[in-house]
UniProtKB/TrEMBL annotation:
Name by which UniProt lists this protein: GTP-dependent dephospho-CoA kinase
Purpose of the protein: Catalyzes the GTP-dependent phosphorylation of the 3'-hydroxyl group of dephosphocoenzyme A to form coenzyme A (CoA).
Native organism: Halorubrum salipaludis
InterPro entries assigned: GTP-dep_dephospho-CoA_kin
Taxonomic lineage from the root: Archaea, Methanobacteriati, Methanobacteriota, Stenosarchaea group, Halobacteria
Keyword terms, alphabetized: Coenzyme A biosynthesis, GTP-binding, Kinase, Nucleotide-binding, Transferase
The enzyme's E.C. designation: 2.7.1.237
């Protein structure tokens, strides 16, 4: 549905927020964002196996987790794989090719965000670009957490400002952006 053009690859290498290796610090920041936005139930969305594992190990099951069994294009280690396989969260399986966002992934993300219970979206392919639609679809006060290769975890507080930045990148992808918004179940406000 949407693909990352080569001309945008560098834009996606810059983190959308601060990088940390401390899951407790990250979770404290997420709690602060929920409080500032008066959104005590605002979800945490984790994009990536290692990020999901670290949040769970720190005592916080992400409301939505997108995993693909890989980290930096290599299989995750056995401890992470078995810990995530043992999680009893509801699971949705989707296909999503590398450097793309499929309608299947976008629809699953919308469904997972609407679910009151934690959901793991198991991606065959790659989930690397899923932070963008997560920022667009999650309510204000949420946190979207993804891995920054070789550095740590990035937490993006969902605010009108971060949503506008994500929207700009999302709309720069190649493909049918209107249909992608429909699959995501969210037509953005004109917040520019």
């Amino acid at each position: 549905m949407l693909t990352l053009p080569d001309s945008l690859r560098d834009a996606f290498k810059e983190p959308l927020g601060p990088v940390t290796t401390d899951a407790a610090e990250l979770l404290a920041g997420a709690a602060e964002t929920r409080g500032e936005r008066v959104a005590p139930d605002a979800p945490i969305v984790a994009v990536g196996d290692v990020v999901t594992y670290h949040l769970r190990e720190a005592g916080r099951v992400p409301d939505v987790a997108l995993i693909d069994g890989k980290t930096e294009r290599e299989a995750v280690d056995a401890a992470i794989e078995s810990a995530l396989a043992a999680a009893d969260d509801r699971r949705i399986r989707v296909e999503n090719p590398a450097a793309s966002l499929s309608a299947e992934l976008l629809s699953a993300l919308a469904a997972a965000l609407a679910d009151a219970d934690p959901v793991i979206i198991e991606v065959t392919g790659e989930e690397d670009l899923a932070a963008l639609p997560a920022i667009l679809a999650a309510p204000d006060g949420s946190s979207v957490v993804y891995g920054q290769p070789g550095e740590g975890m990035v937490r993006v507080p969902v605010t009108p400002e971060s949503r506008a930045e994500a929207r700009e990148l999302f709309e720069a992808l190649d493909g049918d952006v209107e249909a992608a918004y429909e699959a995501l179940g969210r037509i953005p406000d004109d917040d520019r």
